[in-house]
């Protein structure tokens, strides 16, 4: 059994951002932090106050996380990036929107006294003495404090205040993981003062000390227990008066955020549900009844259909039945009244499942096919335009001879470039038949066959059915927004974006197999007509050449001095004990990670890897944490610094083999289409979806039976034709799973919070 939280974030766009550059514009990007740890950085959108990102992320978190902060930054080439504003969403706020939050959120100013992080280890107790009771607060250590100095660390000390008196600890230099082990005692008045306040500060020699956070302990609650010890989360100082912060004038972000708290049961609990779904798929479409998949399609809302499609595709991939599942969807979709020219154009469960299937199984193939052409478009940055209403006349010529290009010359130049890009792309597609994943080719063959049986007089429709998924739902979206498909690290600028849009439109027209239909809507595409017709014939030839292919994966993390050079060593994945970040001050460099492992002699060693950005860092951490998540003897603590000289740079311990000062974060991972399948997780999500659909499934079954004439006459409350065996078994499986969840032990207590 595993409890986990999964956070889905989509950063759509921003609007009305303030100008941070002297040009009157900004270069905005976003940083997403979970409890003040940077997880994701979006691409920078250059020279705009209304940026569009459209980037989606799914992060697996520990269930005890507290908040998500999204910082909007302005990138500067020569100085430190400016902070435009931020949005903070607490776990409590997300819990109030179980179906997720979607909308515009105003940015607020970043207040230094609220930018706190980390925890402090305290022991607070009441002591009996000759002079009466005394209050003792022992400050043991702290971890993960905010970095306030330019050296990437802080110089923390503690102020303990009670009943108007304050005592200070010593200053620990250059550490975000300080250890004090100092005790402070106060006389307990009668009646006792209510609160003990522990504040953490960063000491500065010249400037004002920086606030790092505080904890307030209730003495009244302490009198009942007599003793309290543990890690307390540092809180911002909300007691100090604040100036009215600007909100709204900093612009706003459009976000879609959803938190799912999941408890994944042992595999055996899901077997009845999984076996039932598999049996339904194996049985296929049978006349004279209502199929369970039809009921699921009819009762699933448009908002959740994408998620359900992904869960079903991954579940049947794990069961080796994805081809049969898709074939069943094709057969059920084709059994509905439909026209050849609108086939699979709706957002039905069949369309969404096939689209999700291509993303889950075909991303590597997509990169191999589109990558070279997309890179060429980005690198050349050529001006391409075919629409006369959008043509920009450019000056050409040299020295004494100066001439302005005519509109027709600009359009002819654009046509040649676009035709060159399209030809290169179609060449890559045509040659990719042997490298197309076999499971994709098998699905397309089934689709081709089913459509041919449904429309025997329209052989053309068979090819269009395949290209409607391959070109319109897979290739074209990736061409228009390569950043969202991980084909590029940055978004396209306006000129490159227009070229990509025209190229995607051309691929769509090739996929339609009737270029003349597109020309009727946009006459200015007529000069591209011969290339489109030739492309359609090449696409036909490609669809008929799909064959089998196999691939292989590794079992070790290998390393070399440079790319393309023979490897100089490797670390067995089974020997990895932790994959974590390294403090910036350790090497004077950002984005360094460490891999703690056991060598062949059984000695614990550490390898350090330099990453180029925060996204690459988190991708490496996530990949290693996923494949090593079940390794025995994973570490619960680690050293964020390095052992230099005679001590650790993070906590100043002198014992090299001593326990770590920071908590490991094995559970924090970024989710990706290429992740290993997790059948139990998909089964749990399907259970959550189906559990709320029991009554709609029953009602929809009766409606469909009545429409087919199987049940005549009025139906009273709770009455109707007897439910089919498959629905009875489904409801029994759901009830069994519900009982399993009710019998679970309570969740572990959350970390100690601020007490007032």
What features would you describe in this structure?
The chain is α+β, with helices and mostly antiparallel strands and 756 residues long. Helix content is 35%, strand content 25%. The strands form nine sheets. It has a five-stranded antiparallel beta sheet. Strands 3-2-5-6 form a four-stranded antiparallel beta sheet. A hairpin with a 2-residue loop joins strand 10 and strand 11. Helix 3 packs across helix 16, helix 5 runs antiparallel to helix 16 (679-691) and helix 9 crosses helix 10. The radius of gyration is 31 Å and the shape is globular. The two termini are 35 Å apart. Mean pLDDT is 84; it is low at 395-400, 547-554, 712-718 and 751-756. Keywords: GTPase activation, Metal-binding, Repeat, Zinc, Zinc-finger. GO terms for molecular function: GTPase activator activity; zinc ion binding. It comes from Gallus gallus (Chicken). Residues 304-512 form the Ras-GAP domain. InterPro entries: C2_dom, C2_domain_sf, PH-like_dom_sf, PH_domain, Ras_GTPase, RasGAP_CS, RasGAP_dom, Rho_GTPase_activation_prot.
Outline the fold blueprint.
Layout: E1 2-15, E2 28-34, E3 37-41, E4 52-61, E5 67-74, E6 82-90, H1 91-95, E7 101-108, E8 119-129, E9 132-143, E10 156-162, E11 165-168, E12 179-187, E13 195-202, E14 210-218, H2 219-225, E15 227-233, E16 247-264, H3 267-283, H4 292-299, H5 302-319, H6 322-334, H7 349-380, E17 395-398, E18 401-404, H8 407-431, H9 438-454, H10 459-480, H11 494-512, H12 515-521, H13 529-543, E19 556-559, E20 569-572, E21 576-581, H14 584-587, E22 592-598, E23 604-610, H15 614-627, E24 637-638, E25 643-644, E26 647-648, E27 662-663, E28 669-670, H16 679-691, H17 694-707, H18 725-742
Antiparallel strand pairs: 1-4, 1-16, 2-3, 2-5, 4-28, 5-6, 7-16, 8-9, 8-15, 9-12, 10-11, 10-13, 13-14, 17-18, 19-20, 21-22, 22-23, 24-27, 25-26
Helix pairs in contact: 3-16, 3-18, 4-17, 5-6, 5-7, 5-16, 6-7, 6-9, 7-8, 7-10, 8-13, 9-10, 10-11, 11-13
